[in-house]
C-alpha cells in the first residue's frame, strides 16, 4: 500500500501523511488521552514511521534532540505528547534545544476546542508557556489547517537559526474530517523576515573581513556549532589552512575538525585551554564563526578581546554578538560566505603566532599529567577518557551529560570524525545524555554510541533504560561515579571554603539497577582492571553499562571563575 496515494480525510491521517512526506522515520513520544487519535494513525502507518516509546516526555524530547544533532541530512527530530503534564514535560527540552540551536518538532495534544479556556482536565496553555523557548508555535483547532501548519513548522525549524517549533492540536481537530487535498509547498506565503535565509551575499563586510585577516599578524578563529549545523567542516578547514589561522572552539564546536589538526588548539571558555583563553586577549583580529559570545566564553565582557577587531560570521543577526559589540558582521550561511572569504585570503604562514600557542600550552602540562597519569590507586576521569580513546571506533559518537565528566570529555576525548559529540551546553541540562543517546543511535545506527554520565545526571533519567530494553539498543553507558554533584562540589571547595551543602550523594546499587533493565553491567573499583573492562565493553555487541568509581574530590582545570577575565585563568585551586 502506498500511503501517499490514499486520499486522507481525518486530521490525524493528514498529520501522519505530512510527516511521511517530510521524510520522518522515527517519532519519540508517550501517549495519552488528548493525543490518542494521532497514535491510532501511527498504528495504521507503522510501516512508514516507527514510534519509539520513551518512559517520560522529557526523555522523548531529548531523544529528538539527539536525533537532530547528528543528522547530516538535516532531518528534524520529532517528539509527541499528550496535553497538560505531557506537554509541560517538554519544556526543559524546548529550552535546551532553543539555546543550542537544535531543530525539533514537538507535537502536543490538546483538549477539544470547545473546552479551551475552561480549566478542563489536562488543559494547559502550552502556546503561552512555550512562547519564549520556541522559534514558532501554533495551536490548531481545524483539521484543514494541519497540512499547512506542518509545512511551516518544518521549514521554520530548519532555516536560518535552527530551533524548536511546537504544534498544539486539539483532539477534535485530530478526529474531524477535512476536504484537504495534496498541495505543493508554498513557502513564499510564510517567508517572514525572522525566518528567511540570507540569500544575498553582503559584499562590504566580506571585503572588510578578508582585508583585515590578510593584514593581521595575530589572528584567532573561534568556532561554534554553526559550522556543524551548516555542514561547513570542509570549508572551515580550507579557510584556516590557507592563511595559517589558529583555531579554538566552543564546547559545541569541538567536533567540527580533527582534534589532531595542527591548527586546532582545543576549547576556549570557562574550562577551556589556558593558551586559547590567554591569547584571546592578545590577538589582533578575532574571527567568530557560527557561535555566540555568551558569558561562559567571554568572562567579563569589558575585558574580552578589547584590543582586537572582531569579525562575526553568523546566520542570526538577532543572536550574533549578543554580549559583545561586533562592528563587522557577515550575515548569512557560513557554507556560502567562508569560500568567498577564503578565495580572497593570501596564502601565508603565521608560524611565530602559532608557535606561541604551543609554547603557552606548556603551562597546562602539570594539569594534563595530573589528569591522565595519576600515581595513586584511585582512577581519575581523565584517565578513563584516555582509555576510551584507545579502544573506541574512529567514528564513535560521544554523548555526555552535564558536569565534571562533560568538561573532562571535552578536554581529552579524541574527536577524529565530524558530528561526533552530543551534549547540552547552553542551559546545561542534567539528565540529558541517556535519552539523547537513544535519539543519536536511531539517527546513526552504523556508528558506535558511547554515553558518559555522572551519578547525579543518571538518576534524573535512568528510567529511559526501559527504552533501551524494549528496543535492544546497543549503546555503551559509562557511569563516572564520584558520589558528588562534581561541579557544584568544586565550586563549593574553591569559593565557599569546602562547605559542601547538598552536593554529596548517597547512591543506589547502579549495577543492579541496570541489570534490572536487562543491560549487561559491571563495576570497576580497582585501577588495574579498568583498561580491560573498557576494552571489553566497547567491543560488546549489545547494550552494556560500566560503573567506574573515580576520585571523589577531583577538580577540572583550567578554570575561569565568575566575574573574572579570560586571562585570569586558574590552573590550580588558587592561581593562574
Automatic annotation (TrEMBL):
InterPro entries associated with the record: Acetolactate_synth_lsu (IPR012846), DHS-like_NAD/FAD-binding_dom (IPR029035), THDP-binding (IPR029061), Thiamin_PyroP_enz_cen_dom (IPR012000), Thiamin_PyroP_enz_TPP-bd_dom (IPR012001), TPP_enz (IPR045229), TPP_enzyme_TPP-bd (IPR011766)
Cofactor notes: Binds 1 thiamine pyrophosphate per subunit.
Enzyme Commission code(s) on record: 2.2.1.6
NCBIfam families membership: acolac_lg
GO biological process: isoleucine biosynthetic process; L-valine biosynthetic process
UniProt xrefs under CDD domains: TPP_PYR_POX_like (cd07035)
Protein known as: Acetolactate synthase
Pfam families linked: TPP_enzyme_C, TPP_enzyme_M, TPP_enzyme_N
GO CC terms, sorted: acetolactate synthase complex
Enzyme class: transferase
Source organism (scientific name): Candidatus Uzinura diaspidicola str. ASNER
Pathway noted in the entry: Amino-acid biosynthesis; L-isoleucine biosynthesis; L-isoleucine from 2-oxobutanoate: step 1/4; Amino-acid biosynthesis; L-valine biosynthesis; L-valine from pyruvate: step 1/4
Domain Thiamine pyrophosphate enzyme TPP-binding: 401-548
Keywords noted in UniProt: Amino-acid biosynthesis, Branched-chain amino acid biosynthesis, Magnesium, Metal-binding, Thiamine pyrophosphate, Transferase
Substrates-to-products reaction catalysed: 2 pyruvate + H(+) = (2S)-2-acetolactate + CO2
Cofactor(s) this protein cannot do without: thiamine diphosphate; Mg(2+)
Domain Thiamine pyrophosphate enzyme N-terminal TPP-binding per the UniProt entry, residue ranges: 11-125
Any one GO molecular function term: flavin adenine dinucleotide binding
